[in-house]
Amino acid sequence: MWECPGAGAVGDPRRPDYAVTKGASRKGFAGCMIHGLSEDRMETNLQTEAAPAQPTPAQLSATWRRWLAFLIDWIILSLGGYIVGVLFFDPLSRLGPWARVLGFAVALVYFGIFDSGWGGAGSPGKKVLGIRVVDAAGRVIGMGRSFARAALICAPLILNDFFIVPPPGAFGELAFNGLVGGWMTATLYMLAFNRRTKQGIHDLATGTFVIRGRATRQSLAGYALWKPHLGIAAALVALSVPVALARLPVSLHFAPGVSRHVDKAPDTGPVEVVGAWLSWKPLKAGASGKPECLSARIQLRGTGVADEQVARDITMRLIALYHCQVVTNVSVRMQYGFNMGFSSGTAFHDFVIDEADLTR
């Protein structure tokens, strides 16, 4: 039976003559109570209907798990590159810097397939650490998005410092090195310091997250990025361009490999210098004059590695370029090989160039 205090009417709503007097206000109706049902139970039922339970967002992967998973994947790629390098050392060496483009393509296929739904939403390293790649709705991602994500993380790590020794006036090549190197720096920054969403630039660009466990379709919309991170990342990219234009290094390589001594190099046509480095002894504070030349390392395409005259000529040009003085004999390593970004190989021949030959 209904009872409406203050309304001036008591009755049974099942009876046809049931009515409520005109004195019953809306507030009075709101105060009506069904006999036999406690106020506590009514309040609990109303609260349950008004505030349904919210689903718990998926747990993001810890940063250390992502780093360790990537290390495992990189080791797998490096071992595969080592085997290929042993079997096809000279053909890979003839590719020069384009060997890194080949390495980029291999890494792209590796991560693009494994991190997609077709590959189980995680590379082998991620599966070992129990983490998966999902979208903002907690679902696995398609092949297209996975390949885009893989390209955005592999390109800066493999293609940074692509033009090793740009010729004078090659501002386009230097600017490219700066952009890719800055992109790499910004990516590493985001992975290390973005504590709220734990997303790298490749994750933000493709709308993906890395979570602990399997994809469960739990939304990750509750995780919000700290916006200043984007400004810092953009500044790192912008600042890297003038640094590269000043011919300062903006690079970081993760390409383990093996070295071997050779007495004969393959004939790859004319002598072509791929890269050259000269080391010298810094001057003491307050000292004047030129620094002392110590050693040189010269990377060729192949031809000339075992030729002492070639080593002497290139070393003399390096000394003239960097303005260091020859005080004693200079050790020179002539080498050729390949670098796929995640694996490399080097064959070398060492010379000691007499001081008199370099100062004449």
Structure write-up:
The protein is elongated, with a radius of gyration of 34 Å. The protein has a five-stranded mixed beta sheet with strand order 6-10-9-8-7. A three-stranded antiparallel beta sheet has the order 2-1-3. The chain starts with a strand and ends with a helix. The protein has 360 residues and is α+β, with helices and mostly antiparallel strands. It contains twelve helices and ten strands. It folds into three domains: 2-50, no CATH class; 63-245, no CATH class; 257-359, no CATH class. Helices cover 43% and strands 17% of the residues. β8 (292-300), α11 and β9 form a beta-alpha-beta unit.
How are the secondary structure elements laid out?
Elements: E1 2-4, E2 9-11, H1 26-30, E3 33-34, H2 39-50, H3 63-87, H4 89-94, H5 98-114, H6 124-129, E4 131-135, H7 143-158, H8 171-193, H9 201-206, E5 208-212, H10 228-245, E6 257-261, E7 273-281, E8 292-300, H11 308-322, E9 330-339, E10 344-353, H12 355-359
Parallel strand pairs: 6-10, 8-9
Antiparallel strand pairs: 1-2, 1-3, 4-5, 7-8, 9-10
Helix pairs in contact: 5-7, 7-8, 8-10
How large is the share of residues in beta strands? 15-25%
What structural category arises from helix and sheet content? alpha+beta
Count of β-strands: 10
Helix content: 40-55%
Please state how the strands of the largest beta sheet are arranged side by side: 6-10-9-8-7
How would you spell out the order of helices and strands?
EEHEHHHHHEHHHEHEEEHEEH
Low-confidence stretches: 18-31, 33-37
Largest sheet: 5 strands, mixed
Count the domains: 3
Task: State Rg.
Answer: 34 Å
Q: Report how far the terminal alpha carbons are from each other.
A: 118 Å
Count helical runs.
Answer: 12
What is the global morphology? elongated
Write down the overall mean pLDDT. 82
Q: What oligomeric arrangement do these chains adopt?
A: single chain
